[in-house]
Amino acid sequence: xxxxxxxxxxxxxxxxxxxxxxxxxxxxxxxxxxxxxxxxxxxxxxxxxxxxxxxxxxxxxxxxxxxxxxxxxxxxxxxxxxxxxxxxxxxxxxxxxxxxxxxxxxxxxxxxxxxxxxxxxxxxxxxxxxxxxxxxxxxxxxx
Length: 143
Fold this sequence. Notes:
5 strands; alpha/beta
């Protein structure tokens, strides 16, 4: 009989150190269910008004930062034997995360309470809060 458990987990990460903790928790869950992790990093959108070479230079900078943020997390998942893929998206983080979760047919989203936009005194970051408000599937918030 086929298990109806979690098969695909979207894990939202940024450049903050908190992402390591988020991926560790997601890897635990993925290991239990033999689920695949979709590691998602949402980068800044490059303004369309920039001309060349400024547009390309800024695009390259954002892509490099995203690749640097996800590389050690991919190594961690490889070391744990967790099947995964990486999506680097652009735009509003909450919208990109929820759209990717739907498109990738993920049953669970795992993300941190706050990332780089940490504001003292906030219990839950604006991206986490927005994802909770609009998602129709399970969301695990890792403190």
